[in-house]
Amino acid sequence: MMAEAIEPISTSLAVGIAAAVTGFLARYPNVLYFFQECCRPEWISYNKTGAGLALGTKLYNYLVETCNEHWIGFNATGLEEDLQSKLFGQHVASRVLLKAVTGFMSSQEPKKPLVLSLHGWTGTGKNFVSQLIAKNIYQRGMTSSFVHLFTATAHFPHEAKLETYKMDKMHPGLIDSIKPYLDYYDQLDGVSYRKAIFIFLSNAGGENIVQVALDFWKAGKEREEIQLKDLETALSLSVFNNKNSGFWHTSLIDKNLVDFFVPFLPLEYKHVVQCGRAEMISKGLEFNEEAVVQMARDMNYFPRNERIFAMQGCKVIPSRLDFYI
Ligand SMILES: Nc1ncnc2c1ncn2[C@@H]1O[C@H](COP(=O)(O)OP(=O)(O)OP(=O)(O)O)[C@@H](O)[C@H]1O
Ligand SMILES: *[C@@H]1O[C@H](CO)[C@@H](O)[C@H](O)[C@H]1NC(C)=O
């Protein structure tokens, strides 16, 4: 559980969730992003502390993150551009997420929070895309005090447990315990959660998604021809049938509380190259295509014979690249 440094406003929701999940997070790797609502009238009126204090308040609002348009405001164009130019090889996820988030954010009175469940192979951009969404809602992006990250991956003890780690990061009990928060509650602890966004990240269904991508490849079809409907069956079957899945034994799906299941495709050699280039730019390094290509070639690809998909996706690139420059 991350410590929340700046808490300008009551965050009883965060506290509630924290209490519910802390026990699980201590033992299981899970990732859950929670983007807190920031549209309650009393939160906004917090800024209006009287005419005499106007100047001081104004300054305060620029220095300390508060519920105003300087700090918070959804940028649909920004998200669209980021998804297009920064997220590689995820045309299906891109489309679904843009539609889901834009639709939700432009709704004045959503009846429930937006709940997204991102599924796919490791290192394919699930955390990354969550950061892009945060960046286009909050001025401070992931460092916003309205963004909450619940994770235990950082404390995951041994490389040897990587197999378990790959199966699914969400413990079955976890989702049950936070279910009330995802439910159609208008008020819980006197706080409205309706404009909140929950993003679950999971590797469940990843193998089935890989199979669909592999079938397309074997049939000589373009990756970009893969549509959401081609993946939906694979995804729902795996999520329902996998006993290790967090969705097992929960009524979350029955009650349609998860709004969108978003599939992430396994990344190919060309995407690894793209990630390598992007990494160079973000590190401010001198451009070196040869190094990027060499690094991409040295990565592990699967299935063993076809060698199409990057075993670790783009995940290890930041550290790997250093060895090639
Ligand atoms: N599709 C992608 N496009 C661009 N960059 C990517 C993509 N996938 C991964 N990356 C890069 O690799 C890093 C690690 O990926 P990320 O943590 O998002 O993977 P993940 O799918 O969440 O993996 P895991 O399931 O193991 O948590 C990202 O920070 C980003 O720099
Ligand atoms: C929204 O994002 C676009 C593209 O990144 C940027 O040019 C624009 O300035 C942003 N708008 C606001 C209001 O931040």
From TrEMBL:
It comes from the Eukaryota. It holds the Pfam family Torsin. This is Torsin-1B. GO terms for molecular function: ATP binding; ATP hydrolysis activity; kinesin binding. GO terms for cellular component: endoplasmic reticulum lumen; nuclear envelope. Residues 267-324 form the Torsin-1A C-terminal domain. Belongs to the ClpA/ClpB family. Torsin subfamily. One of its GO terms (biological process) is protein localization to nucleus.
